[in-house]
Write a structure and sequence with these properties.
Elements lengths: L4 E8 L5 E7 L4 E3 L13 E4 L6
Antiparallel strand pairs: 1-2, 1-4, 2-3
The protein binds zinc ion.
């Protein structure tokens, strides 16, 4: 079993908070830290494609 995951940046579609997240190879998105800017009970995190930054 591999535990591949990539660090990425996501934005909450609820409050537009941007936070750093882990994206697993299953497509799950989890905040890296519990101290994100988002306090939404059900976060709708949308992963931003890092390659589009800049
Ligand atoms: Zn939020």
């Amino acid at each position: 079993m591999t535990d591949e995951r990539e660090r990425s940046v996501a934005i909450c579609e609820g409050c537009e908070a941007v936070c750093t997240v882990w994206v697993t190879n299953d497509g799950d998105v989890m905040p890296v830290s519990s101290t994100s800017n988002c306090e939404c009970p059900a976060s709708a995190l949308r992963v931003l494609d890092a390659e589009t930054v800049g």
